[in-house]
Hints:
Elements: E1 32-36, E2 39-42, H1 43-55, H2 62-84, H3 91-109, H4 112-119, H5 123-149, H6 156-165, E3 173-174, E4 177-185, H7 189-208, H8 213-220, H9 224-227, E5 236-237, H10 243-250, E6 261-263, E7 266-276, E8 279-287, H11 293-311, H12 317-324, H13 328-331, E9 347-348, H14 354-360, E10 372-375, E11 384-395, E12 398-399, H15 406-432, E13 435-437
Antiparallel strand pairs: 1-2, 1-13, 3-12, 4-9, 4-11, 5-8, 6-7, 7-8, 10-11
Helix pairs in contact: 1-2, 2-5, 3-5, 5-15, 6-15
Amino acid sequence: MRRLSFLILIVFSVIPFTSFGQKYENGLVEKSVALVGNDVIMISDIENEAQMMRARGYAVDFNARCSILESLLTANLYLTQARLDSIVVSDATVESNLTSHVNDVVTSLGGEKEVEAYFGKPMYKLKNEWRETIQEQSLIQEMQRTVTGDIPKLTPIDIKEYVEKTPEEDLPIIPTKYRIRQIGIYPDREAAAMQVREKLLGLRERVINGEKFTTLARMYSQDPGSATKGGELGMAPRSIFWPEFSDAAMALKVGQVSQVVETPDGFHIIELISREGDMFNARHILIKPTYTSADREKAFNTLDSVRTLIVADSISFVNAAKIYSEERKTATSGGLMADEYTGSSYFEKDQLKPSDYNMLRTMEVGEVSEPFESVDNEGRNGNTLYKILYLEKIIPSHVATFEDDYNELIDEVNNANAMAAIEDFLDEKIKSTYIVIDPLFQKCNFERQGWIK
C-alpha cells in the first residue's frame, strides 16, 4: 500500500562555514548565486551544507550542490511567506531542536573539541549560528502546516466519490494482514543472568589486575558495533543510551570500571574514557544471557501440553493465554498481539518477526502452531521467548474498498491533497516571485520547473 507522510516537511541544514571543498573557476571563493525576492543565496550557503553532508559521511558533487541550491530556493519561498503571514515559533521548540542537532553533530564528529576543530569556530558561535538556521527551519515547517491546514476535512461521501472516480489500478493495494494470538514462556532468566554476572565480574577483576579492557572487549563483547573497536562507543550524549547505562557511565571517574550494569540489551561492564558536560565516551563489554537445550526442552514440553488442551477443546486459546502465558503484555488480552505504536491488532508481513512469520506462512486460520523459538519486544533485539501462535484471521491482499479500508483510503486522500496543496503553493510562488540564478548553476537539472526564467 502506498503511504505518504501527511505533513511533507522539508528540513534544511545550512550551517555557516567558510572552507569550501568545491573548486570553482578562477579560484572563486564567494559570490551570490541566486536571488529570491529580496533574499540572496551565496556560494558559502551551498558549501556550508556540503560541509555538513561530508561530516555525516555523504559524498558531495555538483549534482548534490544543485539539490542543495534547490532546497535553499524552496526554503526562501516558504520563509518569505511565513514572514508575510507573521508566523512565529516558540523559543522552546527552537532550543529543543538545537539540542538534538548539536548532539547529532557532536556524535558524528566525536566530541565538542572535534566539532570546533572541524568548523574552525568555538562551540558558542556555532550554536548561535545553528539557532538562527533552526529557527528558519521551524518557520518553514509551520508554513507548510499552514498550507496543508487549509485542506477541507474529508467526509465519507468524499472517500466514496474518490473510490468511484479512481481507476482500480490507481487505488492503493492493501497487503495481506494477520490477526494473531500467542502464548509465550521464558527460559530460566535468573539462572542465565547469574552466569553472565559472574563472567563479567571475572572480566572486571582481570582489568583491575592489569589486563587491557580493549583486549577483553574484542574477545568477549557481544556488541558487534563496538567489539572490534575494543568496546569504544565514541563521544555521544547520554540521552542516546539506556538510562541505566548512562547513569552508570556518568558516575565513573576517567579510567574507572563499573560494576555489572543491566539494560534491556543485556549486561555490561563500562570503562569511562572521557566526559564533556552531558556527553561521554566509554568502552563496554556486553554479554547477553544464553540458554541451554534443557531450557528450550522444558518450555516446549509446557507449550506442547497447553497446545494439546487447546486442540482438544478443553480450554480456549484466550483463556489458556491468560493462565499460562508469561508474556504479560499480551496475556491479559488473551494473547492478542498488537502493534505497540498504533495499537492495531493486524500485522503486515514486514511488521512480524521473521521467526513468527516463518511459522505463520504455512498455517490455516484457526490453527495452533507447534512450539518454536522467537523473541519479545524488549531491548534492541528482544529476549528469547518460546511460544505457540493462534492464527485468528487473515485478510488477503486486495485493492482498497470503501467498505473495508476506509481508514487507509482517508489517509491516501489526505496525503494526496496535502501534496497537491504543497505543489500548488510552490508553483504559484515560483511564478510570482522574482528569481535569478547565476550561470554557475543554470545547468542544474532541478526537480521543479520554473526556477530558471
